[in-house]
Amino acid sequence: MIRVILCDDHALIRRGIRDTLSDAPDIQVVGEAGDYSELRGLLRGTPCDVLVLDINMPGRSGLDVLAVLKDEGATMKVLICSMYPEDQYAIRALRAGAYGYVNKGGDPQQLVTAVRTVSQGRKFVTPDIAQMLVESLTAPEVAHAHEKLSDRELQTLVMIASGKRLSDIANELTLSPKTVSVYRARVLEKLALTNNSELTVYAIRNGLVGE
């Protein structure tokens, strides 16, 4: 039996994932967490084989959690299940230690297949991610300026380009508005842009958000 823990800050999404996985006879959801602190407590007393983890969570992002688990030598395999398109975070997640990346809007059966695959210690990637990995290996240098952004800077860029105010971003990520402003300033500097309108145009042109 594959033991799975879910970590997502939206209870309805966790329920949908749990129902999908519970239909599989070889998968058992043994715990759920809504944020990093809940996950920490859960992992202390609940052994699991696969952690299904969201990227966009309050406080520590899923990529932050990946880094912590990697530093601690955690043995469970991490599968990222995110609302973000694969071309935004998939390669970053895999480089950070994830064993796979699936989109929440994808085929539910794909999630089941992904859990089974990573539980065996194998990577799960879609054809699109595989193509991106090949391109990243053969590219002579960083192809896009936003690839030089930190994970939190990229997250800030995407949220601003999606129309969210700095105060909304601060609340959603459990950060201070001042901290979010610092991330915004770093993004503007690294991308050689001057305002939110230019950020939005950049994000659309590079496929980070929809038009």
Automatic annotation (TrEMBL):
The modification 4-aspartylphosphate is found at D54. GO terms for molecular function: DNA binding. Keywords: DNA-binding, Phosphoprotein, Transcription, Transcription regulation. Residues 142-207 form the HTH luxR-type domain. Pfam families: GerE (PF00196), Response_reg (PF00072). GO terms for biological process: phosphorelay signal transduction system; regulation of DNA-templated transcription. Residues 3-119 form the Response regulatory domain. The keyword Ion transport does not apply. PANTHER family: NITRATE_NITRITE RESPONSE REGULATOR PROTEIN NARP (PTHR43214:SF41), TWO-COMPONENT RESPONSE REGULATOR (PTHR43214). This is Response regulator transcription factor. The lineage of its organism: Bacteria, Pseudomonadati, Pseudomonadota, Betaproteobacteria, Burkholderiales.
